Amino acid sequence: MFAEIVPVGIPLNSAFHYSIPPDLQNKLAAGHLVEVSFGPQRAQGLVVTLSDDPPVGIAEFKPVGALLDDEPVLTRAQLDLGYYLAHRTLASLAECLALMLPPGLAKQGDTEYELSGQQAEPEGELQFRLMQLLEQRGPLRGRQLDRALPRRNWKAAANTLVKRGALTRRPVLQPPSVQPKHVRTARLLVAPARLPFAKLQLRHSPRHADILDHLLGLWPAEPSLVDVLQRTRAAEADLDPLVERGWIKLSPPEATVAPVYPAAVMQQWVAKHGGQYPEAAVVLNALSTAPGPVPVAGLPGASPDIIDFLDGHDMLRRATNPARIVLTLHGSKLNQHAQALRRPSKRAAVLDYLATQGRRVPVSWIYAETGATLAMLKDLAERGLIDLGEEEIVRDPLAGDIFITTEPPTLTPDQQAAWEAVDACFALAAAHAPVAQPPILLHGVTGSGKTELYLLAVARALEQHRQAIVLVPEIALTPQTVQRFAGRFPDRVGVIHSALTEGQRYDTWRRARSGALDVIIGPRSALFAPLPNIGLIVVDEEHDEAYQQDPPLAPYYNARDAAVEYARRLQAICLLGSATPDLVSYAKARRGDYRLLELPRRIMAHGEYIAQQAERLRLEPRFHPVPGSAAQYADLPDVSVVDMRNELRAGNRSMFSRALQAALADVLARDQQAILFLNRRGTATYIFCRDCGQALACPNCGTPLTYHHTGDTRTGVQLNAPTLRCHHCGHSRRQPKTCPNCKSERIKYFGAGTEKVESELKALFPEALPLRWDWDVTRAKGSHDIILRHFKDHQANILIGTQMIAKGL
Fold it and tell me: Considering the entire predicted model, what is its pTM?
């Protein structure tokens, strides 16, 4: 058999044929990730097709090296989508398929260098340094040598040493940077009844110390077992470890007898009946000479029958002495042991903690609870007291989040009409209609209830045992979208976006591939989640330019168009939603290529809540009741366009118009909230010299630099130090004091960004509580969710941001 394979990480638009070795012929399938030999190096490859016949014109084939994952990493539909993207975007097939792999999984080949053992004198300082590194650190890969010898042409020196026989080199494949995460765990191997034995073995047991202290206080007496247990509140099993150590002995209960009459009377009975009962005479003779009670075991001839006989003739009385404890240690030695058992022991604390858990727990929990170390745990494992193992944990970005379960509300008439049309498409898809359903363009104004239709569509797809992908244009939208969907579909939602760690994206990708997740939410990269049976693809805000991947990230595809094609190939429903549809999408809907559904009216919350809010804010609401529903329709807001040239003529030199200042003052007086949108970040967007006219631009890409007053923590420039930054490639530099061209100090700053809006807002309204939401303040993990929650909880009353805030908040 033969496999057609696309090398990963090598931008080629063609596949290469390899032979399949016998041990892989029943394992290999399209979509598998394999290791292959590609030219002089090792590389990863994706199997795209299998064939029994070799391609024409090729005489010799390299074999597939190894299977890197037992399960295919791409579905057949994803492979087909990769071919479509390569054809549509003119990108290489390898680049298109790489979109569908989680970051860190695909790795390129490398070369490993090692000293050969042959003596060779280095020629020059670089060869000497190279051989010294290999001698000190052993075999090194090319990327390691790049870091050890930066900006040096070490490859030429290595090639020379290889030709001379001083070095050997071989192609290797870098291991993936992401792997399933395992944590070390521990569980108790000792039965609860044997725990005191184990703790005594560790020389720590306060209860045993109490027993020894009590016996030491009574020494040299031999107290009864019952008395010791009562005084120390111990169980009889607690004494077993002390007996095993040889520190005490337990005297068992002892049967004793004593004569009833004086010795003379007993001798008379022996003289009279001794001939008839000689065994009884022997026992009575022994008793008559004893000073007190005699143990039955110590009497000669004292069989049970003889004792019963004499007891029956009232010649003796029987009794049982209780069990006793006998110390076998000297008092000082006993005191040393008791003190040692009272010393704190982290090892014993580990056993106690594991006994309370009753299951395998991560060792990090044990460290936190007991202060133990790994060396202590290994010691306990060597003693056979605990078992150390490993368990895989899922790096779920939603772990720990609390989602309130919600139920579908009653639909408005507009929503009901749109939903019936969507549901009809699901019915046709379930009936396996021969023609794919056309994409649905849901044109609904902001707040018209589009998300509720998305939720109903996802529920219908899940009822048909299929999965759903929900695309949003911005990472900023992900938290609020996840809240809605996770509340409706608990434990079935996963999220994928670039702000997650590689491990989180890898684990979400694996869970999606295995079918453990049914709904994937995220920006354009979420489209390529390997769900096995996709029945619905939702593209929210389908008009947004964020769905277009632009240079330098190839391929340059539009996720909306890719979603439409992907749904067609999967026989799935594609639902496009927008308040302002893309012109192309709207034209396709008008001519019948897409199905157009419209939601022209905005829906507000429950009527009683709206009335209470209007009364609290002293507003006259413009709401209209919805027939048969507790919701209300709302009029669309008024829009005012202000000519800032007239503001300047009127003497207003602020960036805030007089109308905007009045509106903000009214909002703050009513304890309401406002959102200020500006599609520029930073403080000034244009910097130039007033003397020579030179504008400061990025030296890498020529983009005008933006002035940031708060510095740049990402590039290492001091926090709160003004910087100039390129928003295209990320180049950053300090604020110049003079013009780099003419050395003039007359450098001026023009334009405005969100930072300047925030500073001027604070000057105009000192009582305001502004909150800025742009790329500069959302680099930390979870920052989008935190900002959204703070604004929703009214911890800020004015939200300033770029396009992140213009997405349906």
Answer: 0.72
